[in-house]
Design a protein that fits this description.
about 425 residues, alpha/beta, 3-stranded antiparallel sheet, about 35% helix, elongated
Length: about 425
């Protein structure tokens, strides 16, 4: 946010808006029943929580979300994988195979604005938690189903994991070194894309539901998310009728647009048009490369990729990455250092990009997580005045409280806890 502000967030100076309460986050008052686990679903519901929604995470009372066991590393006994995508939620640990546990979850869904699930096909119907069953009690519900392969896919009910989707979607085929084997992306990118798609679709359906009172069944699949994420690469294949190749850290259609070795480490240069290319030549003190007709336009440079890359590489090896980065930035040429993950996070935070979100975890202590990629004036998971965000919940941390909110009497809750149909974490 630009401009001077006072400590309470009121704009200062002439013409400032009158002081008043901060607007509520956009999803304040929205209740989400999160019946998902692992990555795509929990990531989507965490984004909704970041925008102010109340998210109740339904988990098995014995083991909880699968990712709770996906360590090391861990903090306070909680796997880092789980911590990455579950902040801002409450945990309800009940066994849906128990009649009282199932009834509680059905009641939760009946009172929710959004229900999101990624159960295996067929399981959700047997539990009476499918869209048709939930919508009978809650016609305005926005119900989101996440699957590996879409509902019309054959064979029906085929399980899907990110690694499978990267292979099946073609993403793996276009990732890796030129002439090398296919490679997966270093993160579960199809899960992340699916979570983003789910959150976007849910938000659209919520707008419609609020306006009309009519709910909607949103379906999101990993395979469709992966295929749509191929964007120009898929379009190139459709236009040419040919399979795209692998270009490693280079670009199929733009040169120079890749990683280059400097004297001590690698940098990435993205000279995406002819003007930027000429500026690059000036910084490199190579007017011959700017004047060479083989490199005059981007199509020329693509056609003579190997010759040009060789010349640029030879020059870049004469100075350090830091020296070249400074010179290229001054000239307005897009450039970046090839950083490790921790280095990248700390560097972005130091540069003012507000990457990290701190919370006080009951077991791990002070916990940092990475913010979502968007920022909103009305929605900050850190709360007012930079207060700590709500940390990822412990398994069953809020079970008794949520069951009471659903109308269960104390003796019935105690009976569920006693027979293992529900679990309440001692910290809660």
């Amino acid at each position: 946010m630009s401009g001077d502000t006072s400590g309470d967030g009121t704009a200062a100076g002439p013409g400032a808006a009158p002081a008043g309460p901060a607007p509520p986050p956009p999803l304040a008052g929205v209740r989400v029943a999160d019946l998902s686990r692992v990555l795509a679903g929990p990531y989507a519901t965490m984004l909704l929580a970041d925008m102010g929604a109340e998210v109740v995470k339904v988990e098995h009372p014995g083991h909880g979300d699968d990712t709770r066991a996906w360590g090391p590393p861990s903090a306070g006994g909680e796997a880092a994988y789980y911590l990455a995508v579950n902040r801002g939620k409450r945990s309800l640990a009940v066994d849906v195979k128990d009649p009282d546990g199932l009834a509680a979850v059905q009641d939760l869904c009946a009172g929710a604005d959004v229900v999101l699930q990624n159960f295996r096909p067929g399981v959700i119907e047997r539990l009476g938690l499918d869209h048709a069953a939930v919508a009978r009690r809650n016609p305005a519900v926005v119900y989101c189903s996440i699957t590996g392969f879409g509902p019309g896919h054959s064979p029906e009910g085929r399980p899907g994991f990110d690694l499978i989707m990267q292979a099946e979607s073609g993403l793996m085929a276009v990732t890796g070194d030129l002439g090398g084997p296919p490679a997966k992306v270093g993160v579960a990118i199809t899960d992340v894309l699916t979570g983003l798609n789910a959150a976007v679709a849910v938000l659209g359906a919520l707008v419609r539901a609020r306006a009309t009172g009519r709910g909607e069944h949103v379906t999101v699949s990993l395979i469709n998310s992966a295929l749509s994420g191929l964007v120009n690469v898929a379009q190139n294949a459709l236009v040419t009728g040919e399979e795209p190749g692998r270009f490693g850290n280079a670009h199929a259609s733009i040169v120079p647009y890749q990683a280059f070795p400097a004297a001590d480490s690698e940098i990435v240069i993205a000279a995406g048009n002819d003007t930027l290319y000429r500026r690059l030549c000036q910084v490199l003190e190579r007017p011959d490369l700017a004047a060479d007709p083989r490199f005059a336009t981007n199509p020329d440079r693509v056609a003579h990729r190997d010759e040009l890359v060789g010349e640029i590489t030879a020059t870049l090896r004469t100075r350090t990455a830091a020296a070249w980065t400074a010179l290229l930035l001054d000239a307005g040429v897009p450039v970046g250092r090839v950083r490790g993950v921790l280095d990248a996070v700390r560097t972005a935070e130091a540069a003012g990009d507000d990457v990290l979100l701190a919370s006080d975890h009951p077991l791990a202590g002070r916990l940092e997580t990475v913010r979502a990629g968007f920022r909103m004036d009305s929605a900050d998971p850190a709360g007012p005045a930079g207060a700590p965000a709500a940390p990822p919940p412990l398994l069953g941390q809020h079970t008794a409280r949520i069951l009471a909110e659903l109308g269960l009497p104390a003796d019935r809750i105690d009976a569920m806890l006693a027979r293992g149909a529900a679990y309440q974490h001692p910290v809660g």
